Fold:
Amino acid sequence: MNRPARLVTAALTASAALLLTACGSGGGDESSSDKIAGADSADTPSASPSVSATADGIERPEIKLPSDMKLVFEGQQAGDAIKDAILADNERSVSTVWQAVAYGDLKKSGMGFYYTDTALRGVYNYAKNNNTNKTSWAGTLRYFDRRVTVFDETSAALTYCVDESKANVKDLKTDNVKVTETSPDSYVYYNTSVKKNEQGVWQIWQLHEDRGSARCQP
Structure:
């Protein structure tokens, strides 16, 4: 079985990755008109009704992760207002996916607040599949070497690495955690496209991974 974080982060691509036994990556149709899986049902991803205002005045979904799921983000500030806002929303966006995986509530996860277009479809389907299989992860994910390239006031690119070496598969039916050996594939490079919506949120709309990338190896 693949490393848990690998299963999860691999699915954070535009292509609604395969669950647990394989990884998806790459593009897919990037049309904003694409329908999200489950969009016509009660499973439609949406912001949580429990919200709180941040310093920028935006009412955001509440995010809470279980105590055995830790995220570490390096480079939280770049010294530029736009870049700092993008980095902050990057932290919130990935956290909403883990919240959905850990608790199985897609509607209140907040994914629909921070993802859009094909990226939203990918993370939504991934979380839904994990919920069905009662699979999550426990341990620590480290996000590092995060770099922002700003194109204009509403569009940018964000690249970063993820260290999955300290995260392992968790069976939610039994709460058992399976420790998996670390390998080069435990380190992943991500290239994302982000855009600022009318609310001022920097949403991820496109996401690609390079698992085992030399850029992220220790």
Q: What stands out?
A: The chain has a mean pLDDT of 79. The two ends are 23 Å apart (CA to CA). The longest strand covers residues 135-152.
